[in-house]
Records
---
Amino acid sequence: MLVNSTVIQKIMGEKVGRKVEVGEKILLPLDLVVMRDFGGPNVIKKYVEKFGEERPLDARKIAFTFDLHLPARQIKEAENQKACREFAKKYGIKVFDVNNGIGQHTLLENGMIKPGSVVIGTDSHMNLLGAANSFSTGVGTTDIVAGMRFGKTWFKVPETIKINVEGGLSKGVYAKDLILHIVKTLGSDGAAYKAVEFYGDIIEKMNLAARITMASMVTEMDGKISFFPMNDAAKEELRKYVSFDKVYNADGDAEYAEEYTIETPSSPQIACPHSPDNVKSIEEVEGVEINQAFIGSCTNGRLEDLREAAKILKGRKIKEGFRLIITPATINVAREAEERGYIKIFLEAGAIVTNPSCALCTIGHPGVLATGDATLSTSNRNFPGKIGKGSIYLCSPAVAAYSAIKGKIADPREVL
Amino acid sequence: MRGKVWKFGDDIDTDQIYPGAYLTVTDEDEMAKYAMTGVEGRENFADVVSKGDIIVAGKNFGCGSSREHAPMAIKKLGIACVIAKSFARIFYRNAINIGLPVIELKETDEINEGDELEVDVHEGVIKNLTTGKVYKAMPMGELERKIMEAGGLIEYLRGENEG
Ligand code: SF4
């Protein structure tokens, strides 16, 4: 039934029980509809406006994930979260409250995402769940409201771009450097409306954390979703969180809109202000003065990311007057980081460790920048104004950690 | 449908379509007053357009934050459809979801402000009655057509549900 299909065609086709063609618009049943503390209140309002007291179709397929204002700082935020909690309680909807962390990661760790899951949510980086072989995407209020009440919404079957990665990753060069290099190569609209499939030896070997890092930045090429080969190691890693029978890999004769072969970069990559595709090798920006660094976000907030930072910070101190803010992606990550001694290393180095959340990915978190400030960030966007007045450089956790010691952009390979 | 053209450039973002200052407005009819008023020189847009008029723009219409106020304000103002070289993905989706017709057409440079267009949204045929030129855009898919005819996604799914 589902022959010569790309991964997205397979997942969508499975849901409607036939092969779907690229460009077709189809209604898809949804496995999960997700709202955050930001976005959720608008959804509730519209839901009540449209449906009054009518119940959502299936409360088990809806979730709130609070991940922005954890806990609320302003009365408005508190009111919004309260409204979400009350709505959820009324209909028996699960709330991952302020003590959990970033929504997508929380859903994953709680077994709510599996290969083939079709998920919509109010965050533009929902699609990082492509790393778990699921079709997840960020949508607007109307889609969420419709999804809650009717359990489905419409999609266009997207074209797919195939990216073959050649070469390995040398010491100090990570998935983040690779994806920054790819964003640079394809440009900020290089994957517009399209799905992306990654292949290559180095991709095959990537663990879930690295795949998530890659997948979360596909949005920065305007891509819809990205997928990775579901090999035995990937399956095993996912099974830590959820049980499933089936995975979705492309057929050998699947058709692609474009195909790229990309060499891995040989040194750490930095996205300079003010666009994620303004990427330079570290040699070109080494020495640029910075005042702050942030390690965390849905892109680089997992245990593996914190481990790389800990390796560098162990026994060292950050530069006097420098601000290093570290935020684990979820409460599970935080707990493990604590058990392994990373948190102690961070605190002894002089870092500020915050509770799990989206943290400094947005302006809604302590640590915003003053005019003229510059920060390194392991997040995914460096648009002007994103976290205040200053400028943002995107990088890997290792670059952020080592630069915090030096007070300027510095190459972590010096100490690795 | 037939209407007079209001012409806009490239990269008209949602903040120009619907300025952030009015995001707290919840009444959809009131939103109409602010449609396109963030575009320089169009501060009085709501006063000068007539029901059935058409917006024609360059590439990447509706880029920026994904506020649904943007297509809603345009729809409530009575704009019959938006034709652009390309749309930002989220704007396009939001427009369909609330029942505002949107058409992608490469040749929008050849259409001028004040031209009179005749548009068949379903077939994607656009006649410029002023210049005499006829354009063929992608016809609308069947599902989008149904959503549009129902007045938006929620109305469509409700109808489907009720049989
Ligand atoms: S870290 Fe940023 S991009 Fe990621 S989910 Fe949170 S707000 Fe969205």
---
Amino acid sequence: MIAHRSDCPDDLLAASVARPLSELERRALDLHVSNCADCATACTAVALFQQIPGAEPGDDALVARVAGRLAASGGAAFAARRGRWLAVAAASLLLCTAAGAVAMGLWSRRSKVTTQPMLHVPDAVPASSARTRTPPSPPEDLVAPRPPAPEVVDPATAPRAAVKLARNRPARTVPSATEVPGIAPPDAVTAADLFRRANAARGNRQLAEAAELYRALQLRFPASPEAIVSSISLGKVLLALGDHEPALAAFDRYTGQVAPAPLMEEALVGKGRALRLLGRAAAERETWLDLLARFPGSAYEALAKQRLAELPR
Amino acid sequence: MKLVRAGRSAGSPEAPAVDPLADLVRRACAHDQSATRALVVAVGPAMLRALRKVLGPAAGDSEDVLQDAVEGFIRALPTFRGACTVLHFACRVAVLSGLAWRRQWSFRARFSVDAPAAAEDAPGAQPSPAEALATSRQRDALVALLDDLPPGQAEVLVLHCGLGFSVQEVAASVGCPIETVRSRLRLSKQSLRARIGANQNLAATLEVEQP
């Protein structure tokens, strides 16, 4: 077996990811792989990548949540980035000023203490100590996404758009003080903490625990944005648990709110699904019609139309 | 074989003359919120799949990472020149985002405890617990190897071997000449092989023959 050949059938290898190869293609690939160690390794990589599940149940809802938050934040992402650059520039300026001041202080103190004429440049602040401790950022090219450094948005100092964006996002998975046993009192839990824990439980398919956490969130922080959004998450979890009636109630809570509801489409879809499982055809029909009327061109249009076609008139 | 190599991969269509998402991109760039939302809904599932290939099967933070990737995608839209499809562009942003997350957050440690994967929950044809564990270790070992590769090579490897992009599609997405992509692909394969060869345990885990 040779290490590498110049005629490696790279695209055949990639094609094997997207579709089953024909007999001829499979034989050609096998023949090559038996003589090329690099491609044999690549085949192993392809096989292992294929074992990683691409799609999972609940992906649509996850994407819808992200889309909803992004739409709700409006152009905040663009503004936040600009604001972040301004903040970085301001911080750098402050840092330089502070470093300069310290250096000047050292200089003047040494000048006073020593009686010898200054023969060398005084020690300034070491460059390493003047650097901020930021995680290594990857080389950013034009399309590289924002590095996921933990953001601590101070409403008093951060640009308004950044604050808005941060509020529209669920809690990041940055460890909080409340997660450290013995440091934070148990009642220091926040709506964001509960929401994050509930989402994590849901992600781990601990659906009953997730439902309890969503309910606790709604009970303890009923007016929080997390509690409002969690109605949809709770509804979906309850649907998965087979509790269709409580699921419908959860979706109804969201659709019935007076405040602007960026996830209304998702709530209506959930409601429609719950009604379907409950066998309430007339109410389901009304829900899908409501969705189509409120959101022409919705991403769920095809689903709504399909159900309307299936439902008895 | 050269004919095959020259051809493009089936199942991942050539950039059409008119990208169906191009209009949404144009409107999203003009800060049309409904278009932005529709665009995210359209490309989100593909971005999520791409992220999972980079983060591994137990990507518990996938919603957070997806949010970052989507924000990166929206911010990068003004730089999109249509050299590839919008979907390929979005997948590339997702891969870059996933790689950045892995590098910055020591994902290896965080993901050492696997959440059950969807495929493993599906009824029927379930592997035994021992088989599932072995498979899980192999997948973890593979995605951990990505951390050791130079970013450009890791990106090309995931797009090609993980997502099935043809060399031409990778080149269009990354904005590099085809030969550069081939070179990065070759180097990434060699790096993988060298790392596996240097580690008996890893070779055994991945069931790869050592030279």
